[in-house]
């Protein structure tokens, strides 16, 4: 298992190989080092030694890094000389590479405790700030992170309930969390470390490492996702070279989620990171970032689980528009494209997002999309789901939006007026009726003449509606007849010029 | 109107319709594309309609999906196969849109068209299209391209073939996992068209890359590729190249990949052949049966029989049987259930002795499993064991368990036993049945007939009685008629239950009884009951009776319906509950085709007209729907005559 994971981290493979080959000659010095160590420090810990030796003999062979003298991992940092701290650090890390099955708390409980203790010591040691991360230390650290963190999640627990609405399900808690938490803690400390040699660090925190880390965002455990969020954010901040790669990989996760599986637990967390990433984009926005907005963020409105991450998604979208106002109309177009047809809860979210966006939209941008937008709004005003209808009415209370509407009332009023009339005639909900009345009152105050014109037009349209439907039916009937005639002609004449028979058929119908 | 005088421009009609803001209208017009094409004629379809469609790709996904589908069958409208290439450009655009189902449909349509196109057209038009898509800037185009290679490859000239293979290789290493997944999915189809020498060199190296992909989603698709490629390769190559991959996959660190191996195991075994299976895949399979992840064990357990069939009995007994024993006490009920559903099939494989010695204890323990699904799965396959160990032994060892289950606390299990009695009876032979099971069945029947409380309880439990009736027909008609008389009274009980599905089943039962015993019997036994219940104070029962009437009417025929049933329905239309009233409308609608025209005119329509003025909106809706359908019946007769007349005019 460990080997397999390591093989995914290409840069470290040769190293672990060389450590394997140097195993035999270093094992001598190991035991020597041990003895030397003990006599040096004195008898206080000799009692520990017996217990410890058994463990160390298991741990040591695979754990040696070439050229570093190994030290018993169970010693305490304060008990060794400064020169040996480095080796102790590495041997402690190697001890922590053993992964236990934590679902059964009784199994290996002493070893599990020892590992946890060691992990905590490591965290303390690193947080003291006096550590110097050498190349072998970083390699050992990253190896320890990889073996402990990078795992494949078990299948989702089979539930008998149909559907798969993840919203109201209990979150799953990883039984190994008591170890994982400390490992994450250590990873965060490591990345945050002030005097970290970035050149060496980035050779180990490489693309493969980041990819594995991103895979973990699918964890069912919210605590884990929270840790990952902080860590990825720091990595993004600190490792400038990896930024494009992280952006690309996160996009891939989003594409897969939207276009293939619609299942991922960590979209909200990833978007939260991106919210702050986007706010840091330099102006003018690069094409790559705009593509992320159009091809990843906007399609994220489509999955039915959008509710889980909608808040974060809205934040990201708003950040984009905040950067560049000219994006507003394309964003609204996207929202209209993914506008929910049957899911009223989603529709409510869309309307609130729309309101947030419209508040930042300039007149020019607004005019680009107002026709399709208010066609949609007319449906929302009419919605038989009273919350949707209510929410759509409340948009008009927003001062900025009302201003936009007022300035373009010649276009907008005809689009929504019939919806208001219909509501007044037949909406079942009293609150909606009141809101409709308010808006109509407001519109009359705004432009009485226009309202009257709209009223007239609706009356005309209503009387003309059946005529239009009839016209459509006749047209298609004529087409059908023309098609049939063309078919008959071409088969009898043998596929000659079809144009003429079409016309004649038209005439015969017309007469 | 002026418009009628205007000449008809089919394209203009389409353009106009596609501008409409109502998506339903846009969809309708796309669905009638063929009409427009026929009206235009082939040439203008090619020159005007198709180019217009190529540009009209900014619509809702639903409209685009419809368009992609329509274009797939458009060859006749553009002038046949020799003009098929004009259909490629609009579909090419649709291959690049965002929405997955539109893209998939476009690829499907392209494949359908490509399969009919002439070779030279494929070379001239289709191959460039595939290349363009494969080099597409956005991943959607590249994803689509993967599904098209197998269409063009066989027709391509040698140089181009080399190029196509190279392009596919690149797609398998694409930057985007989405593209790699698509390439992995389609690899089998493409490989089937590639010549043997290239298969071994080019395709296998591509495949090996995919099997080592760092995304498990790609690797698990490659598992399917194993089976597909294995069938194409020579046996020795398959053993050399595919077998190690399968063995590796069976130890993959991702349970999804291992699950896929377990799931595809039989196909994989078929691909590598029986000998390597015995030598190499047995350990792999045993590992899967003992996997840590229950999902993997479920998939593996389901293949126990199929896999054992490939092996010889000794190997199966030596390696597989111990695992089966373990699985029969697995901690996951789903694993046990999967095992129970196939384990009976192992009996013929292992032979009589091993079955008696080793399998029977497992059967028995599964028969007593706490989880009902497990027990049911065993019961449903008893016949397979019978064939191996013979009836005597079966009855000795399993019948006690079956009898015990017949008194199971869980009513579904009892139901299942009763359901399987006829099956057992036919499998085990009438003699055996009368001997061993007959008494048991009689006992059940007695229980029900003698104790009314029990009857109603059994009715609650669904359709046991129906099974019993079915069963008794195995014995004698005499007995069954007696039961059925009692039965209609138990149906009554069933009607008064609160679970819809049971009332529904009861109504259906009545119908089937009427079918079996004819209208006379029904008049005698059913109709009085129905007459009685139609005035029941509980509206749900009244509603069930309405449903029963609509089911009975076609069976009983026009006369009884109009004389006995229709008055009841008409009466019910005066009910105070709107739900009854709109159900009356629905029932009346269903009666229209059964009764005479005059009855429709004189009783049904007046009643419907009245209902269509009901204060309740739903009643009005269903009444007007029923009225419409009654008019349609009239109309269809009229239009038939009108169209005949119209034809004469020409």
Verbal overview:
The complex is a heterodimer of chains A (511) and B (650). With 511 residues, chain A is mostly helical. In chain A, helix 21 packs antiparallel against helix 22, helix 22 crosses helix 23 and helix 23 crosses helix 24. The radius of gyration of chain A is 34 Å and the shape is elongated. Chain A starts with a helix and ends with a helix. Chain B is mostly helical. Helices cover 80% and strands 0% of the residues of chain B. In chain B, helix 15 runs parallel beside helix 18 and helix 28 runs antiparallel to helix 29. The longest helix of chain B has 34 residues. Chain B is flat and about 80 Å long. The two termini of chain B are 24 Å apart. In chain B, 43% of the residues are buried. The C terminus of chain B is likely disordered. The chains are: A mainly alpha (511), B mainly alpha (650).
List keywords for this structure.
heterodimer; A: 511 residues; disordered N terminus; disordered C terminus; B: mainly alpha; 0% strand; flat; repeat (chain B); ARM-like (chain B)
């Amino acid at each position: 298992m460990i080997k397999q994971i390591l093989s995914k981290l290409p840069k470290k493979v040769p190293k672990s190989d060389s450590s394997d080959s140097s195993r035999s000659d270093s094992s001598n010095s190991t035991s020597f080092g041990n003895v030397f160590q003990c006599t040096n420090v004195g008898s206080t810990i000799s009692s520990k030694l017996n217990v410890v030796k058994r463990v160390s003999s298991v741990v040591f062979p695979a754990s040696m890094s070439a050229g570093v003298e190994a030290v018993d991992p169970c010693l305490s940092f304060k008990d060794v000389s400064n020169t040996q701290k480095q080796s102790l650090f590495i041997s402690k890390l190697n001890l922590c590479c053993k992964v236990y099955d934590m679902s059964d708390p009784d199994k290996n409980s002493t070893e599990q405790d020892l590992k946890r203790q060691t992990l905590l010591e490591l965290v303390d040691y690193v947080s003291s700030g006096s550590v110097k991360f050498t190349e072998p230390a970083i390699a050992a650290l990253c190896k320890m992170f990889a073996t402990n963190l990078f795992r494949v999640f078990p299948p989702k627990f089979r539930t008998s309930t149909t559907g798969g609405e993840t919203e109201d399900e209990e979150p799953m808690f990883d039984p190994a969390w008591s170890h994982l938490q400390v490992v994450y803690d250590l990873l965060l400390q490591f990345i945050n470390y002030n005097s970290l040699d970035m050149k060496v660090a980035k050779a180990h925190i490489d693309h493969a490492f980041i990819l594995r880390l991103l895979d973990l965002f699918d964890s069912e455990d919210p605590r884990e996702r929270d840790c990952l969020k902080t860590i990825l954010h720091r990595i993004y901040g600190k490792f400038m070279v990896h930024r494009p790669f992280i952006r690309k990989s996160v996009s891939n996760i989003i594409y897969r989620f939207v276009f293939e599986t619609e299942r991922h637990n960590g979209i909200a967390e990833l978007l939260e990171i991106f919210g702050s990433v986007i706010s840091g984009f330099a102006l003018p926005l690069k094409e790559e970032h705009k593509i992320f907005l159009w091809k990843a963020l906007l399609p994220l409105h489509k999955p039915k689980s959008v509710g889980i991450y909608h808040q974060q998604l809205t934040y990201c979208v708003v950040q984009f528009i905040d950067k560049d106002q000219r994006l507003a109309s394309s964003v609204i177009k996207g929202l209209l494209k993914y506008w929910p047809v049957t899911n009223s809860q989603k529709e409510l979210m869309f309307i609130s997002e729309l309101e947030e966006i419209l508040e930042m939209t300039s007149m020019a941008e607004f005019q680009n999309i107002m026709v399709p937008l208010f066609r949609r709004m007319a449906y929302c005003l009419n919605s038989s789901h009273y919350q949707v209808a209510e929410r759509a009415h409340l948009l008009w209370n927003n001062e900025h939006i009302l201003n936009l509407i007022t300035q373009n009332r010649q276009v907008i009023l005809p689009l929504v007026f019939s919806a208001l009339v219909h509501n007044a005639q037949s909406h079942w909900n009293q609150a909606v009726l009141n809101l409709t009345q308010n808006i109509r009152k407001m519109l009359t105050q705004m432009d009485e003449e226009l309202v009257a014109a709209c009223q007239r037009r609706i009356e005309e349209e209503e009387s003309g509606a059946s005529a239009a439907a009839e016209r459509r039916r006749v047209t298609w009937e004529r087409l059908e007849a023309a098609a049939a005639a063309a078919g008959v002609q071409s088969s009898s004449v043998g596929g000659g010029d079809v144009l003429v028979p079409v016309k004649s058929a038209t005439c015969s119908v017309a007469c | 109107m002026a418009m009628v005088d205007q000449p008809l421009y089919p394209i203009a009609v389409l353009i106009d319709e596609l501008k409409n803001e109502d998506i339903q209208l846009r969809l309708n017009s796309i669905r009638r594309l063929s009409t427009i094409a026929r009206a235009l004629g082939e040439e203008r379809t090619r020159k005007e309609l198709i180019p217009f469609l190529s540009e009209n790709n900014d619509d809702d996904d639903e409209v685009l999906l419809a368009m992609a589908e329509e274009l797939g069958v458009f060859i006749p409208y553009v002038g046949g196969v020799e003009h098929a290439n004009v259909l490629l450009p609009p579909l090419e655009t649709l291959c690049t849109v965002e929405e997955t189902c539109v893209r998939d449909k476009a690829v499907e349509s392209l494949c359908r068209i490509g399969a009919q196109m002439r070779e030279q057209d494929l070379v001239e038009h289709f191959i460039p299209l595939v290349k363009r898509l494969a080099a597409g800037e956005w991943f959607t185009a590249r994803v689509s391209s993967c599904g098209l290679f197998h269409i063009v490859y066989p027709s391509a000239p040698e140089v181009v073939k080399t190029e196509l293979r190279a392009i596919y290789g690149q797609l398998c290493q694409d930057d985007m996992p989405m593209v790699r997944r698509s390439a992995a999915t389609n690899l089998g189809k493409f490989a089937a068209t590639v010549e043997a020498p290239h298969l071994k060199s080019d395709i296998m190296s591509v495949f090996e890359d995919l099997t080592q992909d760092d995304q498990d989603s790609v690797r698990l698709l490659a598992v399917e590729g194993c089976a597909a490629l294995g069938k194409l390769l020579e046996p020795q190559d398959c053993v050399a190249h595919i077998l190690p991959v399968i063995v590796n996959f069976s130890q993959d660190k991702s349970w999804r990949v291992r699950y896929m191996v377990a799931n595809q195991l039989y196909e994989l075994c078929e691909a590598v052949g029986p000998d390597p299976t015995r030598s190499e895949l047995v350990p792999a399979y045993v590992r899967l049966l003992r996997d840590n992840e229950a999902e993997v064990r479920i998939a593996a357990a389901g293949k126990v029989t199929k896999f054992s069939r490939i092996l010889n009995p000794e190997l199966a007994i030596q390696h597989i049987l111990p695992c089966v024993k373990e699985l029969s006490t697995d901690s996951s009920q789903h694993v046990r259930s999967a095992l129970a559903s196939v384990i009976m099939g192992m009996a013929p494989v292992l032979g009589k002795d091993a079955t008696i010695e080793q399998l029977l204890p497992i059967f028995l323990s599964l028969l007593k499993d706490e989880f009902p699904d497990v027990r049911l799965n065993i019961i449903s396959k008893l016949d397979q064991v019978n064939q191996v160990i013979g009836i005597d032994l079966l009855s000795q060892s399993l019948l006690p368990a079956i009898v015990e289950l017949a008194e199971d606390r869980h009513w579904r299990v009892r139901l299942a036993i009763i359901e399987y009695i006829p099956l057992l009876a036919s499998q085990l032979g009438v003699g055996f049945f009368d001997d061993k099971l007959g008494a048991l069945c009689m006992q059940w029947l007695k229980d029900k007939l003698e104790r009314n409380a029990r009857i109603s309880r059994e009715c609650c439990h669904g359709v046991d009685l129906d099974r019993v009736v079915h069963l008794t027909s195995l014995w004698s008609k005499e007995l069954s008629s007696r039961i059925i008389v009692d039965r209609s009274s138990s149906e009554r009980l069933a009607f008064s239950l609160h679970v819809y599905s049971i009332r529904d089943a009861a109504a259906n039962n009545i119908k089937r009884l009427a079918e079996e015993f004819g209208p006379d019997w029904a008049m005698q036994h059913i109709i009085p009951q129905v007459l009685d219940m139609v005035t029941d104070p509980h509206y749900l029962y009244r509603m069930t009776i309405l449903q029963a009437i609509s089911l009975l009417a076609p069976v009983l025929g026009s006369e009884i319906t109009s004389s006995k049933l229709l008055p009841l329905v008409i009466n019910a239309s005066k009910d105070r509950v709107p739900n009854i009233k709109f159900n009356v409308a629905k029932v009346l609608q269903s009666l229209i085709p059964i009764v005479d025209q005059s009855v429709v005119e004189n009783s049904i329509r007046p009643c419907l007209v009245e209902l269509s003025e009901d204060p309740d909106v739903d009643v009005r809706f269903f009444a007007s729907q029923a009225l419409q359908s009654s008019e349609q019946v009239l109309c269809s007769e009229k239009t038939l005559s009108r169209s005949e007349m119209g034809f004469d005019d020409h």
